[in-house]
Amino acid sequence: MSEARDATVIRVEGLSKTFAGGFEALRAVDLEIRRGEIFALLGPNGAGKTTLISVICGLVNPSQGRVLVDGHDSVQEFREARARIGLVPQELTNDAFIKVWDTVSFSRGLFGKPPDPAHIERVLRSLSLWEKRHNRMITLSGGMKRRVLIAKALAHEPEILFLDEPTAGVDVALRRDMWEVVRQLRDAGVTIILTTHYIEEAEEMADRIGVIRSGELLLVEGKHALMQQLGRKELTLHLREPLATVPERLARHALSLAEEGHALVYTYDAESGEEDGTGIAELLADLEAAGIAVKDLHTRQSSLEEIFVNLVKEEA
User: Fold this and answer.
1) What CATH number is associated with residue 284?
2) CA of residue 15 relative to chain centroid, distance
3) Which of 79, 73, 71, 130 has the alpha carbon at shortest distance from 100?
4) Predicted confidence (pLDDT) at residue 313 exceeds the cutoff of 70
5) Which of 85, 114, 144, 200 is deepest in the core (most CB within 10 A)?
6) What's the pTM value of the predicted model, to 2 decimals?
7) Domain limits at 299?
């Protein structure tokens, strides 16, 4: 296997999908997923997240372009490509009366894998399902059912795991448990691709983030680089005496009043990094020259949620 192939486990090239009736769900998407990473795909409802996953997994054929999964074409070499993928859908569609052990074992058999009770046991234990192995699905909580979906997806030992809204409808405590499960899978060498509406989920877990809107992939970037490049920092200066307006001599700093005149807010690019490039030193000097005393100051950086909202709100 070549070095480039080792590094890229999924390659999407010029992918477009137009459904009957003319709806264009994907538009010329190019994407590379790196082996062993957690990749989060963010986008509003109807943006094309599930369609993109469905095409990569071979469940929907593209109108144009192609997908390579570990070097295998998802259409021409469907079986080879699909065998490398585990998919956890949004919907809880388990048979209510089947037992946990049986449904996970059956999923392994669907991919032509020989029985391997030791592997099924490892999967169930890793997901805290071992004590529930003889339970029927109908007796499980929603969170446990979602864990069973992950177990089923891992039953045939895939290299890649797709999680479509993995914690939808799950309470906050269980959501964090699920995050830990996903991290453990990544540490075990599984490549994770997840879609999510929870921005904190991507901010907490992802190595890289893609943002999709109206079928177009707007950007793909490392999480920390994204926040540095697109994020903003705010410096709030708490004043000893309130101001009615921002003095004209400070206009070049684009300050805004806050806290009923008791604070000034200065916004600057996080990308500037060092304080010298932010204009803060000049601002403080101008404040002193204007006779405005500052008693305290603090900074905050834009969250990933604010960055995401700013990207998708541009949609016409």
Assistant:
1) 3.30.70
2) 20
3) 130
4) no
5) 85
6) 0.73
7) 231-312
